[in-house]
């Protein structure tokens, strides 16, 4: 839980770990049309965090939590575990978890600037 009990939780449709990161980068490079995490694609390039996203993330007052699929499943072993298709953005207020942006909506976004504006507009 965060210190103010409110957080935006970004859940990637990718597993954590260095080897998974390398495989994901290779997938983005060699077969970008079949890569299954648009949230990863928008917020990260092949090797590093998108600079516009990073600047936005650092400037915001809202607490952001970033989880990979395996971390999300480990931390939310409850009714939320399989409730949402990934990637997804959730909002946690105390112990209440609600949908902020669905996988469908995330997958329609093509530019990080659009993602930033959509996240900003929800607060």
Q: Helices and strands in order, then pairings?
A:
Blueprint: E1 6-11, H1 18-30, H2 38-43, H3 51-59, E2 64-67, H4 69-75, E3 88-93, E4 96-101, H5 103-108, H6 112-121
Parallel strand pairs: 1-2
Antiparallel strand pairs: 1-3, 3-4
Outline the structure in words:
It is a single chain. With 123 residues, this protein is of the alpha+beta class. The chain has one domain (6-121). 41% of the residues lie in helices and 18% in strands. The protein has 6 helices and 4 strands, in the order E-H-H-H-E-H-E-E-H-H. The protein has helices at 18-30, 38-43, 51-59, 69-75, 103-108, 112-121; strands at 6-11, 64-67, 88-93, 96-101. A 4-stranded mixed β-sheet has the order 2-1-3-4. Strand 3 (88-93) and strand 4 (96-101) form a beta hairpin. The longest helix is centred in the N-terminal third of the chain and has 13 residues, at 18-30. The radius of gyration is 14 Å and the shape is globular. The model has no long low-confidence stretch (mean pLDDT 81).
Number of alpha- plus pi-helical segments: 6
Cα(first) to Cα(last) distance is: 19 Å
Number of E-state strands: 4
The secondary-structure class comes to: alpha+beta
Helical proportion? 40-55%
Largest sheet: 4 strands, mixed
Helix and strand sequence: EHHHEHEEHH
Strand coverage percent: 15-25%
- Unreliable runs, pLDDT <50, ≥5 residues? none
Q: How many structural domains can be distinguished in the coordinates? A: 1
